[in-house]
Input
Amino acid sequence: MSDLKLPALDAAAVPAVTGSDHPAPYRLTGREKRALGDALGLENFGVNLVRLPPGAPSTQRHWHSRQDEFIYVLDGELVLVTEGGEQRLTAGMAASFPAGVPDGHVLINRSGHDALYLEVGDRTPGDAVDYPDIDLMVRRVGGEERYLHKDGTPYPRADD
Amino acid sequence: MSDLKLPALDAAAVPAVTGSDHPAPYRLTGREKRALGDALGLENFGVNLVRLPPGAPSTQRHWHSRQDEFIYVLDGELVLVTEGGEQRLTAGMAASFPAGVPDGHVLINRSGHDALYLEVGDRTPGDAVDYPDIDLMVRRVGGEERYLHKDGTPYPRADD
Output
C-alpha cells in the first residue's frame, strides 16, 4: 500500500464497484470499476480504471449524443466491437468514440485472463445514449436521466 | 506495427511532438507528446501519451482556472511537485488537478530511465493558466490565448 495523499493516489486503493445499473435483463455482473476521477475531485470528466474478467463485456453496445469517450488498454486483451467489425486491442492501444457518431461500441474480454483499461468520458449536459442491439435508451425525463424502452416507456428506477 | 483502423489505434503510431511552445526562457526540450485524443477525433477533452527522459519536467509548474487535469503513470518513476510537497509516483498511480484549485503542479523525471504517462484535460472555454514560480501566465486577449508577463505584457507569439 502506498502512502500517497491528494492530489495523488494509488489507483488500486480506490474502492471497486462490480456490475452495472442497467435495468434487467441487461444488467452486467463481471465488470469492476474504480472511479479514479471522482476520488480525485474531478468534475468536468470522469476517469475509471476498469477490470474485465474472462468473458465479460464492458457494457451494452451503445453510443453517446454529446459526450466523448476514450479508452486505453493497460493489460490483457480486449475485442473492440463496432459497426466496422471487430479489432483486437492489447496494452498501449487506444480507441475513442466521439460524441454524436452513431457507431455503437463495446469491449469484450474473450481471453482467458483479466483485462485492464482506463476509460475517460466528459460530462457535457444534455447527453442521450442509444443501444442499437437491445430495447434500451437513456434520455432526460423531468430533469433526470432515465433508462427507457425504445417506445419511450421508462424502466423502473434502480431504487424503485 | 499494428494494422488497427479508427476508431482504434496503436498509441506508438501517433506522431510525437518534442518540446513545448512556452516563450523563452521557459521553453521545454525533452518532453515528447503524442496527441491520442486529437488523432482519434475527440473534441471535448484531450488525451496525450507523454514520455519524459531523465531530468525532464512535464511543463512549468502551473494551475488552470476552469479546466480539470488528470495524469496516470504507465511506466517509470516521476516526482509530483505541488504546494504540499513532493510525492513519488510509479505505474498505476494517478493524480489530478481540479479546475480553480490554486495549487501549481509539475511532474519531474529524476530517475535514470524514461517515464511514460497519460494526461487528460478538458477544453472548457475561458480557461486561464497561472505559473506561480515564473513571470508567465496565459490569458485570452482579443479572442486568442496568449502567453503574458505577470504585468500583462504579451510575449511574442511562437510564430512572430
Chain B is about 0% helix and 40% strand. The first helix of chain B runs from residue 36 to 39. The longest strand of chain B covers residues 45-52.
